[in-house]
Amino acid sequence: MPPELHVTTHIHTDGPIPGPHSLLTLTAAAHTAAGVPIGTFTVNLRELPGATLHPASLQDWRTKAEEWLSTRRASKPPALATIAFTRWVSRLPGRPVFVAEPEAYLFVYWYAQRFTDGWPFVGTLPPEAVADRSAAARSCTLASCRAQLATAG
């Protein structure tokens, strides 16, 4: 049986739940259980048709206008972005385990079910359960992500 791989995941959204609100960025980093890097995936997604920007998210994004613009550059339709992500996961050399905070799980699972009618992972773990839990966040291009990682040590 192939070894388990950890796929740490980092997202940005425009609201608290998928459907009424959209996934804006998805970054993932695959690594062995021992923390050896295998590869990364990142994509900006277009807003879902009919979705709206949540008022609390609007206030937050207003303080990070440049980062908001960065999430909108080269954005892909949600279906194409999700299909590309699940294909990337399915091509990894092992059994992928999804590693993310609950909000990321909620969005990524919803998008995977909505646009691919499936889930490419054999299991799910919280970030604190793996050695390299910030691998995906380190791949994030937004300044607020880098600042948060710097203060986290």
Mean pLDDT: 90
Structural class: alpha/beta
Measured distance between first and last alpha carbons: 36 Å
User: Rough shape?
Assistant: globular
Low-confidence region ranges: none
Q: What's the helix and strand layout?
A:
Elements: E1 4-13, E2 23-32, E3 37-44, H1 55-62, H2 65-72, H3 78-90, E4 95-99, H4 102-116, E5 123-125, H5 135-139, H6 143-152
Parallel strand pairs: 1-4, 4-5
Antiparallel strand pairs: 1-2, 2-3
Helix pairs in contact: 3-4
Provide keyphrases for this structure:
153 residues; alpha/beta; five-stranded mixed beta sheet; 6 helices; globular
Summarize the structure.
This protein has helices at 55-62, 65-72, 78-90, 102-116, 135-139, 143-152; strands spanning 4-13, 23-32, 37-44, 95-99, 123-125. With 153 residues, it is of the alpha/beta class.
